[in-house]
Amino acid sequence: MSSCAVFDTARASGDPVFDPQLSNVLQKSLEKAKEILKTDNVSASLYISDRCYWEGAAGVIGQDPGVPVDSDTIYAFGSITKNFVAGIVLQLADEEKLDLDDPLSNWLPKIQNIDPNITVRQLLNHGSGLSGYHNNNRYWAELAANPDRVWQPEETLQYERPPQGVDANPQYYSNTNYILLGLIVEAITGNSLSQELQNRITDPLHLDSTYLPLHDFKPGQWADRTMLSISRFSSTWAAGAIASIPRDIAKWTQTLHSGNFLQPATLEAMRITHPRRISGTEIPMGLGVWKLGGEKFVAWGHGGRFKPFLSATYYIPELGISVAHSFIADSGEQIPPGNFLIDSYLENQPPDILACFD
Q1: pTM (predicted TM-score)
Q2: Which residue has the higher pLDDT, 75 or 171?
Q3: Which of 101, 199, 229, 343 has the most CB atoms at less than 10 Å from its CB?
Q4: Which CATH superfamily is 74-335 part of?
Q5: Number of continuous H segments (helices) and E segments (strands) in the chain
């Protein structure tokens, strides 16, 4: 199933319509990705502008093969949350409400096992050397034992261990960095992180399906119901709790990287990368953004993992296109569905498709 919208130069009035032939090609490409991935379902969006986007879905709800997914089916996008939080922090810097080289001690009280001299910039680019609460087995045991517990950020930080050995290396990705950034946002604004997300991003951009499930879950169809533990979402918070749909995620990515959210110098600073290691892989990471290089294009985005979902979003400057996807990734190959869409788009775009880039 797919639903689409795009600017159509042949129509003088009425709702925009995506090229039907290209829409069909993209949907078949997504279905091919689903088969290769051996997944229950996949959802994706290719976003060019408010009047130029495609979205599609394939498969059925996990544990419920009688219910198909569609473009409004909700996924947990995991660490893509960090990209939103980074956007908020950098906007606060644009507003001169913080400096990226401020130490933690400027904004937060002393926290056990966390160096108060760590800067905001080091939190954003995972250069802090913090070990990460998610690497503590006691944290996972507590989640399993109390799935309905509503966590406060300060409780999550209690599972941060003293940096030691390889964990003390500032080149390692750590979720703790973004829990601290969420607390800094709240300290500066006096609002909850959820409220700032709404005020600065989801309301202005009309991302109606995007939110942080910290106390309960909004009505809606989720792509997999086994992961609906409020304990998992509330404890992960600013590091990875965002719930959304690919269309919303792709629209945010497009807005951020096309220069319509941050000042140009700030966006440029966001893209200054350093090598960071995550799950044995080295990735060039900036301030809440990853540089993702492929054979054809350089892209800017972020990945997300919230079991059983695997997600990604990225913007390709050379094409002016953003792509977002999510799928159940318990088994099979981990090939990004967005890559299938970009390849199909380039191979099958109609001659007048460039009108969409205006």
Answers
A1: 0.92
A2: 75
A3: 229
A4: DD-peptidase/beta-lactamase superfamily (3.40.710.10)
A5: 11, 12
